[in-house]
Every structure is written in structure tokens, then in C-alpha cells.
Write a structure and sequence with these properties.
With 414 residues, this protein is an alpha+beta fold. The chain has twelve helices and 23 strands. Strands 6-5-16-17-18-15-19 form a seven-stranded mixed sheet. It has a six-stranded mixed sheet with strand order 8-2-1-13-22-21, covered by helices on one side. Strands 9, 10, 11 and 12 form a four-stranded antiparallel sheet that branches. Strand 16 and strand 17 form a beta hairpin. The radius of gyration is 21 Å and the shape is globular.
Length: 414
């Protein structure tokens, strides 16, 4: 089958690798002249690592990143611990991997090039009409290509191949990748909150490409409509705000010498009602996107790619296969989209009531049985049993409560 993939990100590269190893002919189209990732740090959860294991990239991912055993957050000024999620609450040696997006991208991209997958750059896809018994790609320069037996849309939240839906969230975040600071837990995501309107976080992400030492992803929550005010007030004024919230970040802030080191990321909550059409499927953020509060974006993309590869093994008809792929992922996606709607305002909003309930009710209750295991399962991505649906296994030593005890891989995979 001749398959075209729009976008050379995590979802696109994972799909290309899985499908190429099953014998499909793959052509990827990327708008940048040199493919590159967008963003800073992320956490590969046990669900995403299960897919990377099937691709033979788990060891490289673990080696390049930093093991995460805990997510920990305090409210300021009370000092109350309002978030304390430990992977050890789950059975098996479950954990996350803090990693720079560029590192994960590099592992997938290098594997795709080694597999001989065609990647055409400088090609901005604007449409994918049905024509000549397949779908063609139309590009912004007036050219076209195809027909293809199947088109996979991985262009993200603003994909021109998907109808507009959802909404942009009021809050985004400033991100920077900085040298790892002293005094922080090298195996934890640490956060501080003032209500839900101010939040800072430090995540270990290993040693990214081009770096000579371990780094941290540092982020600062910010309303999008206050971004210009942040720029106008200046870097030093902002550093004072951060130090007031979290004095221990002083050493980290000293390494920020220009606003150019900080990138503002906007988030959107959207879910396509119809993620498939004739010879077309939307996966990853093109299908579903949320805020990063639950840390599932890259993991969801990897699971979507694996589901598509699995479905194409099981169904000869391309439209039956894409429908089956969505069916394999639908329940998990629905659950986490709903949880994102629930949790995001608790940590990023102008509400005064929600963070009060978080700090004085939910925080204490979260330490009582069975909350620790439930929270760890939520963060790990296990709610909804996504691995069981794909016949995947979590940790090598034992399966999670929500995963199957057996594992399989697409035909022809090393």
C-alpha cells in the first residue's frame, strides 16, 4: 500500500516506522526545509514506552532521558503538598522518562532515515482531496502529489486537513531548556502553585542533542493575553516573580539571560467527532489535543500510530482498517479528554474556588487509599486499558493493572 503522511512529528514518524516495517511504501511531507521538533520537555509514560519497545527504541529512550519516579507539587504560600504522585503505587517497575522533545524526535527521525523512508521537506500540505481512486496532496505552492491509498494527517491542532473544532485555552506556558540545577530531585517533576493562575515547574530531561550536560525543562504558566505585558515588563521583573514564588529556582534563573531562551506554548482542547474519512485518518493532536497537565500528548500519538499499524495488519480494506484503528483508541481518548477538561482548570485558570478545593480537600484525600494507585494510573496513562486493547505490555518484568500480560508486535518488526 502507498501511504502518505502529512507532518514529520512524533505521530508521523512513529506511523512511518511501524507501517514501513509491515511492508507499506511510505512518503512523508514536511513543511520545514529541515524537519525539527517543537517544544521542550515531556514525559514518556509507560504506555508510550510500551510502543517504543515494539519499535526497538526503548533502550535508547531510557538512556537519553531521565527516570521519573514522582510528580510533586506544593501550594504557595501555605506550603501544603497538593500533588504527590508516585509510580511505585503501581505494580511492577513502572516509571516515566523525562526527555527533551528534540531527543525523542531525533531517535525516531534517525530510525526513519535508516529505514529508507522518503521524507520530502519544504512541502506545506493544504488539502487532501479524493481523486483518481485515492487521495492527493495539494501544496501551498500550487503543486500536488499522489494519488495515495491512504493519507495520515499528523499536522496537529491547526491541521488544514481537519475541520475547525474545539477552543484555545486561556493559559499557556513559557518553556526553556536549562542546565540542571542543584538542589532538585533528579527523578521528579516538581511544581509550585499560587492558586491556579501562577505555576512553575522543573522537569529533568536528560542530555538533549547538542548539550554537554543534563538539563531541566523549566516552565511558567502564563495567560496568552498577558504575553505582551510579560515582554514589556522585562526579564528581570519576571525573574523576581519566579523567585518570590520559588526561591530555590534562583540558580536556574541565572542561566536565563535573554527572553529568546523562553518559548511560549499555546494549548487547545479539541476532539474531532469524525477522525476518519474515505482513505484519510487523523491521529495524534490532529484528532485530539489538550493541555499538557496530564502529560499524555506524545504517548497518545505513539498509541495512535501503533493502533493504526495493528488495524492495517488485520483488515485488507483501508477504510475498514482506519475505522478499526479509531475503535481501538476511542475509549482511551475519550477518557483522557474528559479528565483533561476536569483537571486543567484546577491548575491553570483564574478560579479561586477550584484551587481552594484542590489544596484543602483533594490534596489530603489524595493520600488516602486507593487514591495513590489511582492517581499513578491516571498519570501513567493506564486508565481505560489502552495497552490491553492493543495487546501490549507495560514494564518488562510485570504488567500494570490495566495492561495485558501478553505482548505482540506488528509483523516484520525487529
Amino acid at each position: 500500500m502507498l501511504i502518505a503522511i502529512a507532518g514529520c512529528g512524533i505521530a508521523g514518524l512513529a506511523s512511518a516506522l511501524l507501517l514501513a516495517r509491515d511492508g507499506h511504501r511510505i512518503v512523508m511531507f514536511e513543511r520545514f526545509e529541515t524537519p525539527r521538533p517543537l517544544g521542550s520537555g515531556l514525559i514518556i509514560q509507560p504506555t508510550g514506552l510500551a510502543v517504543l519497545r515494539q519499535m526497538g527504541l526503548d533502550h535508547a529512550t531510557v538512556a537519553a532521558g531521565s527516570r521519573i519516579d514522582r510528580l510533586f507539587g506544593k501550594a504557595i504560600p501555605s506550603g501544603k503538598t497538593v500533588l504527590d504522585v508516585r509510580y511505585a503505587a503501581l505494580k511492577g517497575d513502572e516509571h516515566g522518562i523525562g526527555i527533551h522533545r528534540a531527543t525523542l524526535f531525533g531517535l525516531l527521525y534517525d530510525a526513519a532515515r535508516a529505514a529508507g523512508i522518503t521524507i520530502e521537506t519544504g512541502r506545506t500540505v493544504i488539502d487532501a482531496p479524493l481523486q483518481d481512486g485515492g487521495r492527493r496532496f495539494a501544496f501551498n505552492d500550487g503543486r500536488s502529489d499522489g494519488p495515495f491509498d491512504l493519507v495520515i494527517d499528523t499536522l496537529g491542532t491547526s491541521s488544514p486537513l481537519a475541520p475547525p473544532t474545539g477552543r484555545e485555552l486561556a493559559y499557556g506556558a513559557l518553556w526553556a531548556s536549562l542546565p540542571w540545577p542543584k538542589g532538585f530531585d533528579g527523578h521528579a517533576l516538581e511544581q509550585r502553585y499560587v492558586r491556579a493562575s501562577r505555576m512553575a515547574g522543573v522537569l529533568p530531561i536528560g542530555t538533549p542533542p547538542g548539550a554537554n550536560e543534563p538539563q531541566a525543562a523549566f516552565f511558567w504558566s502564563l495567560r496568552a493575553d498577558r504575553l505582551q505585558t510579560w515582554r514589556d515588563t522585562g526579564l528581570e521583573h519576571w525573574k523576581g516573580d519566579v523567585r518570590g514564588l520559588w526561591p530555590e529556582t534562583s540558580g536556574l534563573l541565572e542561566t536565563i539571560t535573554t527572553p529568546a531562551q523562553l518559548t511560549f506554548a499555546r494549548y487547545a482542547h479539541r476532539t474531532l467527532m469524525q477522525p476518519v474519512a474515505d482513505r484519510l485518518i487523523h491521529i495524534g493532536d490532529s484528532w485530539h489535543s489538550t493541555s499538557p497537565q496530564l502529560g499524555q500528548g506524545a504517548n497518545m500519538a505513539l498509541l495512535d500510530a501503533y493502533a493504526l499499524a495493528t488495524a492495517l495488519q488485520q483488515h485488507k480494506n483501508v477504510n475498514e482498517a482506519t475505522a478499526a484503528a479509531i475503535s481501538l483508541r476511542h475509549r482511551h481518548v475519550q477518557i483522557y479528554q474528559a479528565m483533561s477538561l476536569l483537571f486543567t482548570p484546577v491548575y491553570q485558570s483564574d478560579s479561586a474556588i477550584l484551587p481552594f478545593l484542590r489544596d484543602w480537600v483533594a490534596g489530603p484525600l489524595s493520600r488516602l487509599w486507593p487514591a495513590p494507585a489511582l492517581l499513578a494510573a491516571i498519570v501513567s496513562g493506564f486508565i481505560g486499558s489502552p495497552l490491553r486493547a492493543l495487546d501490549l505490555q507495560a514494564s518488562r518484568s510485570t504488567s500494570s493493572p490495566s495492561s495485558s500480560s501478553s505482548s505482540s508486535r506488528p509483523t516484520g518488526m525487529a
